[in-house]
């Protein structure tokens, strides 16, 4: 009998940003499907809660600042030492950064912080897991981009740049590793009902929802389902692609 490609039994999946929001929903779903979850996040409180909920061992939770390059590489090395092969990486880490602010009024520190977390962290995670995935001739990498990376949102230049650059990064890297049994894809949601939008200006939030034909926010469980496919064996002939989850805002 053919094994269900959506079954994650005997697979180790690293979920970055697993303590809350989309990352937490994805960790919960993949855990239900049999995966050994290794959770990364900057929030020690959120990690502790997830560890209790999913009965994770100590070496399955790691507090990490994704803007710290050395920490990213050392953490992935430790995960590989503890658990062996990393079958999939799902990266949902991200911050909104400055919101509702025109480009000429954004400080470079705020711009750089957004890039460091949203873009550089994604690059470093990818660099860290690729060598082992090549050795094992298998891997799935899924990065959470944004519809802002395709269309741009006014007053959010750092976020737009970080997500559009991520999409370009995914396209090129996917072609580099396609012959090694590794797929690399991105997912571009429209605005999702998470804590991340707590600091988004009301004007910007109204603008983003107004662009969605369904007229509502997306929910974390809807995004988790798509990320689960991207991290699975079923995602075997799609790479370098940016999936949409936009309620009809983007159809390309």
| CA gyration radius, whole angstroms | 17 Å
Which CATH C-level class is it? Alpha Beta
Query: How would you name the CATH homologous superfamily?
Result: NAD(P)-binding Rossmann-like Domain
Measured between the Cα atoms of the first and last residue, the distance is 37 Å
Instruction: Assess the beta-strand content as a share of residues.
Output: 5-15%
Summary tags:
252 residues, alpha/beta, Rossmann fold, 8 helices, 14% strand
Describe the structure.
The chain has helices at residues 21-32, 44-54, 69-83, 108-136, 148-151, 157-177, 202-210, 220-230; strands at residues 12-16, 36-41, 61-63, 88-91, 139-144, 182-189, 242-245. It has 252 residues and is an alpha/beta fold. It has a seven-stranded parallel beta sheet, sandwiched between helices. Strand 1, helix 1 and strand 2 (36-41) form a beta-alpha-beta unit. Helix 1 packs across helix 8 (220-230), helix 3 (69-83) runs parallel beside helix 4 and helix 4 (108-136) packs parallel to helix 6. The longest helix is centred in the middle third of the chain and has 29 residues, at 108-136. The protein starts with 11 loop residues before the first strand and ends in a 7-residue tail after the last strand.
What's the structural blueprint in terms of helices and strands?
Blueprint lengths: L11 E5 L4 H12 L3 E6 L2 H11 L6 E3 L5 H15 L4 E4 L16 H29 L2 E6 L3 H4 L5 H21 L4 E8 L12 H9 L9 H11 L11 E4 L7
Helix pairs in contact: 1-8, 3-4, 4-6
Q: Can you summarize this structure?
A:
The protein is built from 8 helices and 7 strands; from the N terminus they run βαβαβαβαβααβααβ.
